[in-house]
Amino acid sequence: xxxxxxxxxxxxxxxxxxxxxxxxxxxxxxxxxxxxxxxxxxxxxxxxxxxxxxxxxxxxxxxxxxxxxxxxxxxxxxxxxxxxxxxxxxxxxxxxxxxxxxxxxxxxxxxxxxxxxxxxxxxxxxxxxxxxxxxxxxxxxxxxxxxxxxxxxxxxxxxxxxxxxxxxxxxxxxxxxxxxxxxxxxxxxxxxxxxxxxxxxxxxxxxxxxxxxxxxxxxxxxxxxxxxxxxxxxxxxxxxxxxxxxxxxxxxxxxxxxxxxxxxxxxxxxxxxxxxxxxxxxxxxxxxxxxxxxxxxxxxxxxxxxxxx
Length: 309
Prior knowledge:
The chain has one domain. 77% of the residues lie in helices and 0% in strands. It has helices at residues 2-34, 41-62, 67-96, 101-108, 111-122, 129-149, 157-181, 187-202, 216-237, 243-249, 253-265, 271-288, 294-303. The longest helix is centred in the N-terminal third of the chain and has 33 residues, at 2-34. The two termini are 33 Å apart.
C-alpha cells in the first residue's frame, strides 16, 4: 500500500512539473510576443489580464463550476491575489524605466531565494549541501541573466532596484497563496477569478492605450491562446508541486520568451542564455529530488493574515 501511495504521489508530482513547465513556456512565449507590440507595458498587462480572466471564467462555467462558490471559497484571498498580481506587474514595468534592464530582470527573478530564506528562518527547512548548491545555482543564473541583458544606467536606479525586489516579493507571496487555494477550487475558476480581478485593478492603465487601438487584437489573441492556458496550467501545477520547486522552474520563463522572440522577430539568444538555462536546470533538479514535506510547504501560506482561516 505504501509503495502504491508513493507511485501515486510521484505521478502527481510529475504532472505538476509538466504543468508548471507548460505554464512557463506559454508565459514566456506571450512575453516574447508582447515585447514586439508597441504599447505601454501596464496597458498591455491590463488587456491581457482582463481577456484571460474572461476566457477562463467562461471555461469554468462551461465545465460546471459555480462562480458564487468560487468567490465564497477564495473570499478575501481573491483581493489579495489581485493586489499581488497587479503590484507585481506594475512595479516590474515601473522598475524597467528606472534602473538598468539586466539588473531589474535579475532581481525580479529572486522569488525562489526569498521563499527558501523564509523557510530557513521559520525552521521548516534544514540547511543541507543540496540547498546550498541549489541557491548558488539560482543566484548564478540570476547574475548571468542580469549580465547578459546589460542595459546601462537608469534615471532612478535605487528606486528601480527597490521596486524590482518588491515585485519579486509580491510574486513569492502570490505563489504560496495559490499553492493553498489551488486545491480548494477548480483551476479554471481560481485562475479566472484571480486574473479578472487583477485586470480590473490594472484597468486604469487602459487609458495609456490612447492612439494604440491597433494593439488590442494581437494582445487579446495572445491572452486567449497563450496567457489563459498558462494561468490554468499554473494553478493546476500547484495542486501537487511545492512553492519553491514551482518558483525555481518558473525561472525558465525568460528562456521560452527568448525562443519566441527568436522565432517571431529573429532575436538570437546568446551563450549566456545557454549558461543560465543549465544553471536553472541544476537548481530545478535539486529542488525536485529533495524529500517532500507538504505540511511545512503549506504552513507559511496558512500563516498569511490575508488568507481566510
